[in-house]
Amino acid sequence: MDKTFLFLMPLIAVALIIIPLVITLKRKKAGKPVSIKKSVLVNACSFIGCMALMICVMPAFVGAEGAEAAAEAADGLASGLKYIGAALSTGMATIGTGIAVGHAAPAAIGATSEDEKNFTKSLIFVALGEGVAIYGLLISILILNG
Fold it and tell me: What CATH superfamily classification does 67-146 receive?
């Protein structure tokens, strides 16, 4: 397998990930019924499948290049997984924060509009939800510097 295929493989993966999204958009534009849950599930499955395929196929390229290249690739893999872990910790924490603040802030506004004494209590609950994002960022910094 040559270097051209190695270069084209990520492009093929991106195309396979985008195809379900394009199909969903075309169905919606044509006026056909579209299930959002189904389209998100299909897109997530195609993403996971492409990533699993990349993980399974890439060692074949590394094995063909020799032991020195395998050591460099292992360092690159460790570095890449470190960045993925940092991104996931920050991303999941901010998603959780968005959900928490999305539920707490309207309730806080409603409680404050009924009685102004509830403002400080409401503010504390909103700030607790936002603290989750700070913890996720802290974990990301620890992963990247560790």
Answer: F1F0 ATP synthase subunit C (1.20.20.10)
